[in-house]
Amino acid sequence: MRLALITDAWHPQVNGVVTTLVELVKELKKLNHYVEIIHPNLFSTRPCPGYPGIDLAIRPKKQMSQILEALDPDAIHIATEGPLGWAARSLCLQSGWSFTSAFHTKFPEIFNASVKVPVSWGYALLKHFHQPSSGVMVPTQSVLSGLQKRGFQNLRPWTHGVDTDLFRYHDQPVFFPTLGTLPRPVALFVGRISYEKNIEAFLEMDFPGSKIVCGVGPLEKQLRQRFPEVYWLGILPRDELVMLYASADVFVFPSKADTFGLVLLEAMATGTPVACYPVDGPLEVIGNSGGGIMSNDLEDAVLKALKISRQEARARAEAFSWYAAAKNFVDYLQPIR
Fold this sequence. Notes:
Elements: E1 2-6, H1 16-30, E2 34-38, E3 45-47, E4 55-57, H2 61-71, E5 75-78, H3 83-95, E6 100-102, H4 107-115, H5 119-130, E7 136-138, H6 141-149, E8 155-157, E9 186-190, H7 200-204, E10 210-214, H8 220-226, E11 231-232, H9 238-247, E12 250-253, H10 262-269, E13 274-276, H11 282-285, E14 292-294, H12 298-305, H13 310-317, H14 322-332
Parallel strand pairs: 1-2, 1-5, 5-6, 6-7, 7-8, 9-10, 9-12, 10-11, 12-13, 13-14
Antiparallel strand pairs: 3-4
Helix pairs in contact: 1-14, 4-5, 10-13
């Protein structure tokens, strides 16, 4: 099968959507599918206001039409609702082509938190975007149920996976050379340092050991100044990130807006238990597995998660597979004609 995968999220961006698509493409190629990734680097771009490191394509429709015409794909999947997503949607509707799409990010909540755009406006726009889709792939059942209540149709549950070979298991927290010997226990956050991640809930909580933050984002500068006692690492290469996960005693996920939370699986795969709120994403990733603790009291969740065995955390991660996710994805695709 020849698949056109359109995404506004791709390298050099570092986020869960990019990771999901990279891993998906790897598995699709193993299944002998040809995937043409149509991403912002192929077009003229401008920086996204307020989000350094994210570039948006400018007037991409004509060039995208040429790419799709040359490719002559069997199926089209629109992964994001940015400029490339809208251009692809428009071309599909003009040509009478079927397409699938995905709901990866709660943009209405993000823009409400950052610039106070009403959440209802955001969902009305996204509902309009996805309405013609033959299948809207959604990462968790709780997110799917929420979208159904808002009138979205053709929703398809599509969970994600984790590379358990890369994120290998350690039965004890490992030594991370960059940080030296830290006071234990060590609590870790990995993710974008931005409004929607609710990172201040992690930074402000009382904790008897050390806190580490790995990531960058628009709030980084001011939060570094407010919390100088925290160890700030920026972005790490993938191999170092694996060891960082394994060095922690607990992984803290304070976000209430994520649709999944790949970092939860990555942490648990190394044996590090997780603590988070009982919200979309964690409700499915952790569930009743014993690999982590969910509580509306984040500090309490962290302290309880410290008592979880690393074997339990790893066992939960092993329940998720990129191979299974890719097979599921292919089943949902629709021929364009």
